[in-house]
Amino acid sequence: MANLDVEVPSLKLNDGTSIPMIGYGTGTAWYKSNADGGIDRNLVEGIKTAIKLGYYHLDGAEVYNTEPELGVAIKESKVPREKLFVTTKVITNIKDIPNAIDTSLKKLQLDYVDLYLIHSPFFASSDADLQSAWAAMEKVKASGKAKSIGVSNYLVPNLVATMKTATVTPSINQIEYHPYLQHGGPEGPFLNYMKEHNIASSAYGPLTAVTKAKPGPCDEIYASLAKKYYVSEGEIALRWCIDQDVVAITTSGKEERLSDYLRALSFKMTPKEIQDIAKEGEKKHFRGFWKAKFEKDDRS
């Protein structure tokens, strides 16, 4: 286990708030299909361990059914609220966002979240649906119940539709992002659009190329860079995001692994190494989430 005294760097968002570049996720492996299943103490302890190690950015969502555990863990950690950066997302109750944020805050035992996201655009059957949902999000921000508001899984057409009537620009778009799903790359229309509008990017599934998408064309370069920097391939995967100013969301129930991931903060890759990974990644396409919403070879 890495014994590092490292500070997680932050990225400044377009509304002036700062978001830690590594976040601890409470979905995926921790997802609960039953909201009435009681408190999962394993998850509570996992979150508390993450906080103890310095993961102050905690990423949740109403659909994960883990907001109660996140709330208990925050309370039991005794870390001052202002030190934490708490994200949650709305989709289940997207038609009633004012009630959704109140319900989430109650479960989280918090007065506000640092970041509130619309979890996906796939609820919408028209641009008007996207626009009315965003107008409701703007009211949440104005009320002080969320310091920042953003979106998740939005593509360019969803962002364009939202921006037509927005008075507040989304601060961030959380997307699946790794070498095998680069959405057209840094110069492609997707990431370029977000750059032009000063919308930050956050990655879920950043470890995909070194986990469920193996074997693949990035294997060799990941192994080589891990050897060079004396870290694991997982830390190379996280650093690849961070060095592109992409916030990385990861998770694990193992303290040793979470501690080791923080080694991603102890080095910096060269621009060429970042480009080489991207170039190799273009040779394979792998989407781990929302597959039913996309054609097999759709890399958008």
Provide a quick synopsis of the model.
With 300 residues, this protein is of the alpha/beta class. 37% of the residues lie in helices and 16% in strands. The model has no long low-confidence stretch (mean pLDDT 92).
List keywords for this structure.
single chain, 300 residues, alpha/beta, 16% strand, 10 strands, 8-stranded parallel beta barrel, 10 helices
Q: How does this structure look, described?
A:
- This protein has helices at residues 41-53, 67-77, 97-108, 127-143, 156-165, 189-196, 219-229, 233-242, 255-261, 271-281; strands spanning 10-12, 18-20, 22-25, 57-59, 85-90, 113-118, 146-152, 172-176, 200-204, 246-250.
- The protein is an alpha/beta fold and 300 residues long.
- The strands form two sheets. It has an eight-stranded parallel beta barrel, surrounded by five helices.
- It has ten helices and ten strands.
- The chain is globular, with a radius of gyration of 18 Å.
Average pLDDT figure: 92
SSE order, as H and E? EEEHEHEHEHEHEHEHHEHH
Task: Describe the largest sheet.
Answer: 8 strands, parallel, barrel
Distance between the termini: 37 Å
User: Count the helices. How many?
Assistant: 10
| Envelope shape | globular
Order of strands across the main sheet? 3-4-5-6-7-8-9-10
% residues in beta strands: 15-25%
Count every beta strand, where a strand is a DSSP E run of 2 or more residues. Answer: 10
Radius of gyration: 18 Å
Structural class: alpha/beta
| Residues in helices, as a percent range | 25-40%
Which residue ranges are poorly predicted, with pLDDT under 50 across at least 5 consecutive positions? none
